[in-house]
Amino acid sequence: MTQNLKARSLLARRNAVRAKDLWPAYSSKPMLRVLRELTTTFGFSIEMGELRIIDGHWYVTHNGLLRLATRRRCRSIRVEPVLQFSDPSVDRWVFKSTVHKSCHSRGFVGFGDADPSNVSSLVHGAEMRVAETRAVNRALRKAYGIGLCSAEELGWAPRPNIPRPLDQRKASTTGNNGHQNSQPRLRDRLCLLIRQHHLDAALVKAYAADYCGTPTLRDASREQVEAFINDLAERAARDRDGLVCQLNSYSKSQEVAP
Predict the structure, then answer these.
(1) Which CATH class for the 74-153 domain?
(2) Which residues lie across from 81 on neighbouring strands?
(3) Quick one: which of 37, 52, 82, 100 is 20 to 30 A from 160 by CA?
């Protein structure tokens, strides 16, 4: 027990440092207190992509909920389509998910829906998978008492409001892709990561835009792109297979793009 508390305390400190690096504009004392509570209670890790800040609010991710279920030795997760509320002809899907925490659990039920009107344009054509993910997320949040909404349940792709100095805004519009003060260009860093870890460039760009909450990667600010690159580098080094699996979820949207 003592060892577990020490590990959670260490994780809480790492999360605080990581939050300040990724989201300095939102790293206020109240936000960091919430982060510490989420860390000590559920063991969520920012480095593992289990928590995100969107528009000044904490959100848990699908990855975070699944890893929590694994840590808590979840018995089973059952998912089934609710056909009477689904309409494949217009890409509308509704799923029901039931989570059994143990062999004696009566089950926690969650529903998830998705259609072109409530998903990001990046995943149009993949509404069935989005609905399934949302159903699983809601069932897991009920099962483990997580009042925090999950990022995948959002029906929109918000753009973080990160203020930038005037000189930085001017620099970002000159086409130098962040090449200032003798720093390496962000594009070069991203290309190097893609080559180093043998990633699909098109899928990385789609993931980057979704991560930054912008229509395309070029619409993101330097701070957003830099945060994405740092996160991508850590995930590729720690869990490349998991990263590739997440990137592949964007392949459908690439296939159906006009």
Answers:
(1) alpha beta
(2) 95
(3) 37
